């Protein structure tokens, strides 16, 4: 596992008030996780936070930029945006943006789970096991309770 650079460590310090944030190495950068879900990433010394339809307008209004990568000669924007410039080095200002990113990450996970749920309903029904037979001991106990017949010759 690559060793964290000073920017990653600094970003984790800024995000301490959010809670237990973890950084995991990925694709030459770092993924930031909270509660097991990725809400941010750090690439080439730049922090990006998860957005969605609910939060993207807030990031745009503050002049933030999306993470864009090249694929097959075309630019592909992702749902990760830079935080506002005044929040990049100020944990107090960064915290509400990080919370928005965590919320966006949680909504994305819920949306993904909802899409998988109908597929689970279409799974074939599991056959029930046959009912268990009476234990032999129970039959013997029932037989002992009957009165004995007396034979008369």
UniProtKB/TrEMBL annotation:
It comes from the Bacteria. Residues 120-140 have a biased composition (Low complexity). Gene3D superfamilies: YgaC/TfoX-N like chaperone (3.30.1460.30). Residues 108-153 are annotated as: Disordered. InterPro entries: TfoX-like (IPR047525), TfoX_N (IPR007076). Residues 13-104 form the TfoX N-terminal domain. Residues 109-119, 141-153 have a biased composition (Basic residues). This is TfoX N-terminal domain-containing protein.
